[in-house]
Specification:
alpha+beta, single chain, 15 strands, globular
Length: 844
């Protein structure tokens, strides 16, 4: 299909000159962003309520610049407020928090500034001067216009670009690596000064090294996961290609990893026994003889994608780490939940106690495979929970993704040598198939999902019924041990493929196939029934509609609108490339995502990646529709690049790391030709990317690059003092103690209703986590009642042994703010500058 009938030859030079000018203008715009300043006179300031005052800011900037405020998105404002030259803060505070707590908090909202004086006095009469300074941002209109022009140009010349890359891939890779190494060296040497100086405190070298250690661990876990899985697949299949073994071995490895983690956590001398089991299983690889080309392809992919994988893990770890001995952390609530799950599984693997809420006895095991592995590894090595989820999880995600894609290419080498634009469409589907970059580990079961989707697509593509049943089994097992809701797409795809072939069977074979399919269908229905209650509480409709109802402007909404439109188009286009019954399943995944995105964000990954995999196979027959498929996928690119909670830099990191690793995995051949030159190129590329990564980490450790998520409401809640007090709980209280704390409220904060960090103490807490348990998340009255009882204990009005409790406890303790008055007779056990740990009496 031609996008336009006009020949490109006469306008090609003009198009590329315009391309260069547009991007140069955009770059200059970012580099030359002006700083604007406004002094606040007492006559401009008005009282709001409590300690809060409002001042209208007279910021005026000319196009293409705008002044971003917190109203534009989460913590978008770059404004700094000074009182007599001293910086106030925390910034981005909630208006209610400013009114109630004051003391320098402020929020830049629209064209106004809500703020409080440093001592909560009246800024109109306290005699102090107030100055607001901010840096203007390039209007989203400009990069959006450039992006649209880029998309049109890319669609128009995609075959020329793909062909050029294919012919010059070696030279382009070498040149790109040289530029990256040179740039990283300049930054690490301090030649370019401090990058993102206002982003937050610099990271210390200990955190950087620990982040790197966990990212390397993530790459190693992929190998430890896959090798016994391949051996088990070989045992089950008896024969098969390396691709068959790998793409069955990954889901088998999930089950094997779960079994080993259970052995380590539950059995006496479990670590030794699990190690022996792993070795015994891996011995099944003896005698495996893959072809030379298969080994070359896997070696190339593993060596070059490993630095990309480690880089992505390091990026996420440095952005979202938890509190350390010297640095605060600003992780999201889900990240805290999964990190805390490692500690709760270490403390009580069976039953898996809900340490954040005493009256809900057990936590579930759904979505807990990776935290369980982290808890098991903690018995042998030092594992930092946040970095394990972030760095090890991020590296695991990218590395396993790349190897699974290479296995997919190995399964059908003729497809890898097919049209370049078919490979480009598959690569683009890999790029867009995620809610936003951080979500790959924020919902850490997602790290298993992409290889499972690729495995399902591989086995569905085979003509035999038994292969379709294997695909269905992979869908069920992979979703049960990974991202549970994925079965709503992957299960129907496997069943649809089996239905197309079951008519070929007769007698008992048909009955067995129907029974197996019925069992899988029953599981999927039971899973949907489990979420039936949630469907009535979560917002209905596409993400863009929900965000529009929050009052966000059209430019902020544009990436979400584009992705929703992309989903609708891809649901329709699936019927052009895929057999109708399977296309219906893929379209159903897009429909679930558009209807209930809160629950079914994972379905967007499943359907998008399945679409790319099937289009890749069908491109020879449907080449005329390639442009439409490419354009529909391209609509989802802005969302993955621009909507991460930490901002667009994470989108660039995603494009570089995931795009680079998947590009290596999907490469048609290993450049350059020739034995020694090929080995030299592979080694040189791996060393170059590794050197770039190392120099970047040196720059972060030396403070020349500030890496920070910027995701916070007010000051970071998880401070070193919070970490210290809960580690004191772990060390200074008996295992069967019950802890009460004032780090809980109805407010959706990390030390409010989302407080799962308290599980780091490895003790049962009466109530800290109201949001992430089934009882209080949907029952405000019950949550309020529990908070009332908790407060009664902390004030001495109620004795802990007078409560209706699930279990019996030998001692009771309280973690409270340092300035809080406590009942007489309580004994202080430990204290720091912010919190104290008390032993409390059982009777008043």
């Amino acid at each position: 299909m031609k996008l336009w009938p006009v020949p490109l030859r006469g306008t090609r030079a003009f198009g590329f000159v315009g391309f260069a000018i547009a991007h140069a203008t955009l770059l200059v715009g970012y580099l030359a962003a002006p700083q604007v300043l406004a002094g606040l006179s007492p006559s401009q300031i008005a009282w709001d309520a409590g300690s809060a005052y409002i001042a209208v800011l007279p910021f005026e900037v000319a196009f293409p610049y705008v002044v971003r405020t917190d109203q534009d998105g989460r913590s978008s404002s770059a404004l700094e407020l000074f009182e007599n030259g001293k910086r106030l803060g925390p910034a981005h505070s909630g208006h209610a928090e400013i009114r109630e707590r004051g003391h320098g908090r402020y929020s830049h909202w629209g064209n106004a500034l809500w703020f409080a004086a440093s001592d909560s006095s009246d800024p109109r009469i306290n005699g102090r001067s107030y100055t607001a300074i901010t840096t203007a941002s390039v209007s989203p209109v400009l990069p959006l216009a450039v992006a649209v022009a880029d998309l049109l140009l890319l669609i128009a010349v995609r075959r020329r670009i793909a062909g050029f890359i294919g012919r010059r891939s070696g030279a382009l890779a070498t040149g790109g690596i040289f530029i990256c190494v040179a740039a990283a060296a300049l930054v690490a040497g301090g030649v370019l000064g401090r990058v993102n100086a206002s982003g937050g405190p610099p990271k210390d070298p200990a955190l950087v090294l620990d982040t790197l250690r966990h990212a390397i661990l993530g790459v190693g876990l992929v190998i430890l996961h896959w090798l016994p899985g391949i051996a088990l697949a070989r045992l089950l299949l008896r024969t098969g290609t390396l691709a068959d073994l790998m793409l069955l071995g990954f889901p088998l490895g999930m089950g094997f990893s779960a079994a080993l983690a259970a052995i380590v956590l539950l059995a006496p001398h479990g670590t030794l026994f699990a190690a022996l089991c792993w070795i015994a299983c891996a011995l099944g690889l003896i005698g495996l003889r893959p072809s030379v080309d298969e080994l070359r392809g896997l070696t190339w992919t593993a060596m070059v994608s490993a630095p990309f994988s480690i880089g992505f893990g390091c990026w996420l770890g440095l952005l979202w780490h938890g509190p350390t001995d010297s640095l605060p952390g600003s992780p999201t609530g889900d990240l805290v939940f999964y990190a805390a799950s490692i500690e709760s599984l270490s403390f009580s693997p069976f039953p898996h106690l809900n340490l954040g809420y005493e009256r809900v006895p057990f936590g579930g095991y759904y979505n807990q495979l990776f935290p369980g592995i982290g808890a098991a590894l903690g018995r042998a090595i030092t594992v930092e929970p946040f970095l394990f989820v972030l760095s090890a999880g991020g590296a695991f995600f990218v590395f396993s993704y790349a190897l699974a894609l290479r296995a997919y290419v190995l399964a059908a080498p003729s497809l890898a040598l097919g049209p370049y634009h078919g490979v480009l469409i598959l690569w683009l589907s890999v790029i867009v198939a995620m809610r936003y970059p951080t979500w790959a580990v924020e919902s850490v079961p997602m790290i298993y999902l992409a290889p499972v989707v690729i495995a399902v697509a591989h086995w569905v593509s085979k003509p035999q019924l038994w292969a379709s049943l294997i695909a269905t089994a992979i869908a069920v097992v992979g979703s049960a041990l990974g991202k549970v809701v994925a079965v709503t797409v992957l299960g129907p795809v496997g069943l649809a493929a089996a239905a197309l072939r079951v008519v070929e069977l007769r007698g008992a074979g048909k009955l067995v196939a129907i029974a197996a399919a019925g069992g899988c269908a029953t599981y999927a229905v039971m899973l949907l029934a489990r979420f039936a209650d949630l469907l009535s509480t979560v917002p209905l409709g596409p993400t863009s509609r929900q965000m529009a109802m929050q009052g966000l402007d059209l430019l902020t909404l544009a990436p979400y609108l584009a992705r929703d439109l992309s989903s609708a188009l891809l649901a329709f286009l699936a019927f052009l490339f895929v057999p109708p019954l399977i296309a219906l399943c893929i379209a159903g995944g897009f429909l679930l995502f558009l209807t209930y995105p809160f629950l079914f964000n994972a379905d967007f990954l499943c359907s998008s990646l399945l679409f790319g995999l099937f289009v890749h196979r069908a491109m020879e027959r449907r080449r005329s529709h390639g442009t439409i498929a490419f354009a529909a996928l391209s609509l989802a690119v802005p969302a993955i690049l621009l909507t991460d909670p930490s901002g667009w830099p994470s989108g660039i990191a995603w494009l570089a790391c995931v795009g680079g690793a998947s590009g290596v995995a999907l490469s048609r051949r290993l450049p350059p030709t020739g034995g020694r030159r090929r080995v030299g190129f592979i080694v040189g590329t791996a060393l170059g990317t590794t050197l770039t990564l190392c120099l970047g980490l040196v720059a972060v450790a030396r403070g020349y690059v500030i890496v920070d998520s910027g995701w916070r409401s007010g000051a970071p809640e998880l401070t070193p003092a919070v970490r210290e007090i809960w580690f004191a709980v772990r060390e200074l209280t008996p295992p069967d103690a019950l802890i009460f704390t004032d780090q809980v409220s109805l407010q959706p904060r990390l030390l409010g209703s989302w407080n799962t960090y308290a599980s780091m103490g490895r003790r049962q807490v009466f109530v800290s986590n109201l949001y992430q348990n089934e009882v209080t998340s949907s029952n405000l009255q019950r949550a309020t009642s529990d908070l009332r009882e908790n407060e009664a204990v902390l004030t001495g009005k109620l004795a802990p042994d007078q409560l209706h409790l699930r279990g019996r406890y030998s001692a009771y303790f309280a973690v409270v703010s340092i300035g809080r008055s406590v009942p007489g007779g309580w004994r202080r056990v430990f204290a720091n500058e912010d919190y104290a740990l008390y032993a409390i009496l059982a009777s008043p």
